[in-house]
UniProtKB/TrEMBL annotation:
This is Phosphohydrolase. Residues 17-128 form the HD/PDEase domain. SMART domains: HDc. Keywords: Hydrolase. It comes from the Bacteria. It comes from Ureibacillus sinduriensis BLB-1 = JCM 15800.
Length: 207
């Protein structure tokens, strides 16, 4: 079932830009597998399915849950399992800090696995890939970093890519929910901090 689902979702993700393509899903699966090794009580199948489906109806690309619903209904799962997966997916998004609580260990694993791919070297690459796809500036010193915002504000304003680091990415390390996720986030967070400092140095003519 997992292998069949991979084939089905790849057709959807291949339509997205490089920040949310199928390679993103493969990396999140890899992160999830690492966390699952330290969480033996988690339902591995539910975690893997939720990872594969978590972006098929991403609000950045569609206003409809059609893909998510159709794929879920194609699987040989109980209604309670389908509902659990939908709740996991709902809890993954940051939503400008207005996130839905991750209540189950499966939800915590999927959320951490996805957020790990939003930070570090890959996170940096993804941020600028998405910014480029949307025609956003690399940086804008006049732009005010928002501390409090609604989900609508978060999604509607086209901020510069560097601003996104301060509004979301640098916050994720402290929002990890599993011990393995917290450990994995440390080095990636430090790399982002170093990158932003180097970027500033080069812009200021220091390096």
């Amino acid at each position: 079932m997992i292998n069949q689902l991979k084939v089905a979702v790849q057709e959807i993700y291949d339509q997205f830009d490089a920040s949310h393509d199928f390679q993103h899903i493969e990396r999140v699966l890899q992160n999830a597998e690492s966390i699952l090794e330290t969480e033996p009580g988690a339902n591995q199948e539910i975690v893997r399915i939720a990872v594969l489906l978590h972006d098929v109806s991403d609000k950045k690309y569609t206003d409809s849950k059609e893909n998510e619903d159709a794929l879920l209904n194609s699987l040989n799962l109980s209604d309670s399992q389908k509902q659990q997966i939908k709740e996991i997916i709902e809890s993954v998004s940051f939503n400008g800090g207005n996130e839905v609580a991750a209540k189950s260990i499966e939800a915590k694993i999927v959320r951490d696995a996805d957020r790990l791919d939003a930070i570090g070297a890959v996170g940096i690459a993804r941020t600028f890939a998405y910014g480029g796809a949307k025609g956003r500036k690399l940086y804008d010193d006049a732009e005010e970093v928002r501390v409090q915002m609604s989900e609508e504000d978060y999604r509607s304003k086209s901020t510069a890519s560097v601003t996104h680091f301060y509004e979301k990415l640098l916050l994720l390390k402290d929002l990890m929910t599993t011990e393995k996720g917290k450990q994995m986030a440390e080095e990636r967070h430090a790399f982002m901090v170093a990158f932003l400092q180097q970027l500033k140095n080069e812009r200021d003519g220091i390096s």
